[in-house]
Amino acid sequence: MFGLFEKKKLEVFTPCEGEVILLKDVNDEVFSKKMAGEGVAIVPKDSMICAPIDGIITKIFPTNHAFMITDRNTEVIVHIGLDTVALEGEGFYRLASEEQSVKAGDPIIEVDLEFLKSKGIDTTTPVIVSSGEKVVNEFTGNLEKNQVIMEINL
Question: What pTM does this model have?
Answer without folding.
Answer: 0.94
